[in-house]
Amino acid sequence: MEEMERAVCNHPRLNEKAPEFEAVSTHGKIKLSDYANRWVILFSHPADFTPVCTTEFVAFSKANEEFKQRNTQLIGLSIDSVFAHLGWIQSIEKNFGVKVPFPVIADLDMKVAQLYGMIHPGAGTTAAIRSVFFIDDEGILKALIHYPMSNGRNIDEILRLLDALQTSKKNGVATPANWRPGDKVIIPPPPTQEDMYKRKDMGYEYIDWYLSYKKL
Question: Buried (b) or exposed (e) across 187-202, using 16+ Cβ within 10 A?
Answer without folding.
Answer: beebeeeeeeeebeee
